[in-house]
Amino acid sequence: MITIRKTSEESITALTSREVESQDVTEVVAEILADVKQNGDEAIRAYTKKFDGAKLAELHVSEAEISSAIQETTPEFLAVLEQAKQNIQQFHEKQVQRGFITTDEQGTVMGQRVIPLEKVGVYVPGGTAAYPSTVLMDVLPAKIAGVSKIVMITPPNAEGKIPTAILAAAKIAGVDEIYKVGGAQGVAALAYGTESLPKVDKIVGPGNIFVATAKRMVYGLVDIDMIAGPSDVLIVADESANPRWLAADLLAQAEHDALAQAILVTTNEELAQAVQVELQAQLDALPRKEIAQHSIDNNGKLIVAKDIEEALAIANQVAPEHLELCVAEPFSLLGKVKHAGSVFLGHYTPEVLGDYFAGPNHTLPTEGTARFSSPLSVDDFIKKSSYLYYSKEALHTVANQVIDFAEMEGLSGHARSMRVRKEEL
């Protein structure tokens, strides 16, 4: 049973520590990247057979396969996907940036252009679960940004098939090309290009340690969104919270991954005790009990804080991926939250709303990186380019200042570039 701990007895650092994944796969991933770079599709097929058990003649997912997936998906779930798409689009459309231009009377023109990326690769995990939500969350902001081509990769099962829900979500989101490839080899294919897969400008989407390591290693050749670690949730709760609901929210996060972290910080010890009982009762009925049990046993925390200010201080130190404010007056606390990927306000806004349906992106900074990074957004699929124009008169006005600046830095060639123009003005 998970232990209840108090801030009066332990440091915040000790209270919130988590089991970390210490496996170093750098050498293995480096070999995979080099192999795919040199041998292309041949290497992809070999790794797909080795890791996924699938022998593939064709890596590309055909239109017939996509149509079949749509037919096999229930109309009810297709309607859910369409409504989620609408919610996600409405939220992300408000993130669209515009360029600007400035002028003055002397004849200068300066501005900034907002330009969408041309080609983006979206990685959708396979393994123990299918994630059509990840398809929507990662593809729709790219579509809104104006990305020309979106290439999705996801690992096949042993029969060489992709889950129908994944393909249905990809069709609804507007993915241009889909390939049956996962792991570090998939990241390599997107970074370098192969006979079948195009080289992209950016790779987004979560994955296991091999995928995360591969993304880190190809960064610079291509851009990436973030290095996603195990998921986490921190719940701040007062006496008005429902212990059954809190336990369910903690387990919803714990069932993701044995390394996931679920923390409850409350000002009420009786509430913590009630959640403790509920956790065990609900665990016993959970299909993914083994995963969730490991997460709760090793990384789960029930913490009693002396007051709500201390509870928020703990939340800000942890900088959680997901922060639930299960309190009577959640909006009164929102302004005090400094570090969180996404904040869920009140008793009727569980984190699972954000996972699937509400609209804000569920691709969020993990492992405390909310201190300096942000959720995936339309901004991740654009770049900015500045431009400037000076008239003859405007250049003459500033020529001496630019020459002085260049000479101060010892760059006489820079100074000459300006001086030769000044001499003829």
From TrEMBL:
Belongs to the histidinol dehydrogenase family. Keywords: Amino-acid biosynthesis, Histidine biosynthesis, Metal-binding, NAD, Oxidoreductase, Zinc. Its EC number is 1.1.1.23. It comes from Candidatus Enterococcus willemsii. The keyword Metal-binding applies. Substrate binds at S231, Q253, H256, H322, D355, E409, H414. The active site is at E321, H322. InterPro entries: Ald_DH/histidinol_DH (IPR016161), Histidinol_DH_CS (IPR001692), Histidinol_DH_monofunct (IPR022695), Hstdl_DH (IPR012131). Signal peptide: none annotated. Catalyzes the sequential NAD-dependent oxidations of L-histidinol to L-histidinaldehyde and then to L-histidine. NAD(+) binds at Y123, Q185, N208. It comes from the Bacteria. Binds 1 zinc ion per subunit. Its cofactor is Zn(2+). Zn(2+) binds at Q253, H256, D355, H414. This is Histidinol dehydrogenase. Pathway: Amino-acid biosynthesis; L-histidine biosynthesis; L-histidine from 5-phospho-alpha-D-ribose 1-diphosphate: step 9/9. It catalyses: L-histidinol + 2 NAD(+) + H2O = L-histidine + 2 NADH + 3 H(+). Gene3D superfamilies: 1.20.5.1300, Nitrogenase molybdenum iron protein domain.
